[in-house]
TrEMBL record:
The chain crosses the membrane at residues 21-39, 78-98, 118-144. This is Predicted protein. Keywords: Membrane, Transmembrane, Transmembrane helix.
Amino acid sequence: MYSELKEATMDSEFDKVFARLQMEWTYIGGLLVAIAVYVHSTSFPEGVANVTYISVDTAVFSISQGSLFNVNFYARRAIATSSIASGLGIACDAWFLLQYNWADLQTFIARARDVYGSYFFFSLSARVPGLCMFTSALSLMLFLELVAFDAWPEVFGLWRALHWGSSFMRGG
């Protein structure tokens, strides 16, 4: 993105980057919220349909008393990392959307340029929500694997044996 902004001279070149960033921030914001929320059901008064909101929340495993799964120290750290990264990513994403989403192209160009006249720092900071989403998703995946391993370690031994067998068959 930095090279595209640095080499852009016409409004149409800036507009491509601007439109792509707006779409990226919108998608990443939605994904971060999906990672952060949980499954819950809301009942409404008679005559109003019951609505169930289904999203991803594995943090329920770590905070529920008498949970079906044992959540160890590392799993708690993984879900905390996921929550922190989600929160930070949502905050950064909201800031970018509020700062740039309703701005016109000339405002985008002026705000993206730093004190040195380049787009370097904007290019780095514009990727922070994506980095937070990656960190959140990765630590959430680690949490799930740690809980699953603690619940059924034999499956991971079987998976490792199958993986080793397929590597052996390929000659690796």
